[in-house]
Amino acid sequence: MYNDPIDPYKIKVYEIFREQIFSEDFSINRRVYAAIITQIVFISLWMYARSHPDFHPQGNIPLFLAIAQALAALLAFIAIVSGFLEIRQSKRRYRKHYASATDALITPVIVTSSRVHTLSHIVAVTTPIVFLLLSLFFVYRSL
């Protein structure tokens, strides 16, 4: 059993890393929400522009909106993946520099996640990919 006295420095370092990882996870959630809202706005604008061609007789506003939607989806994908890479790097840094073999009781709390949480990460990554594919379809329809 683990009977060694708990080092307050290790607890503080663990708390800092845990807070950093949790805040990055919440940041990823906010990025996904922002991507969904942005894509809804772009889809609405594209559909409105397609149904009212008299507002843009010489320009191709639907094509511009579809390209802007694709860029927004690509940037959202990059932002979400970079958040996951930051979490991964923080976990590695913690295990490499601060967690010892005797810290096996607290290390899994910061390193592992549940299946539902893992599925939410998969959904967070696939959401901008789906929107990117949808925006490419809108580009095709606008040509």
List the helices and strands and how they pair.
Layout: H1 8-51, H2 61-97, H3 107-111, H4 115-142
Give a quick summary of the entry.
The protein is mainly α and 143 residues long. It has helices spanning 8-51, 61-97, 107-111, 115-142.
Give a written overview of the molecule.
- The protein is mainly alpha-helical.
- Helix content is 80%, strand content 0%.
- The protein has four helices and no strands.
- Helix 1 runs antiparallel to helix 2, helix 1 packs parallel to helix 4 and helix 2 packs antiparallel against helix 4.
- It is rod-shaped, with a radius of gyration of 22 Å.
- It starts with 7 loop residues before the first helix and ends with a helix.
Q: Give the helices and strands as they follow along the chain.
A: HHHH
Percentage beta strand: under 5%
Give unreliable regions as ranges: none
Number of helices: 4
**How many individual β-strands?**
0
Rg of Cα set: 22 Å
Task: State the end-to-end distance.
Answer: 68 Å
Helix content: over 70%
- pLDDT averaged over residues: 84
- Tell me about the biggest sheet? none
Structural class by secondary-structure content = mainly alpha
The gross shape turns out to be rod-shaped
What features would you highlight for this structure?
mainly alpha; 4 helices; 143 residues; 0% strand
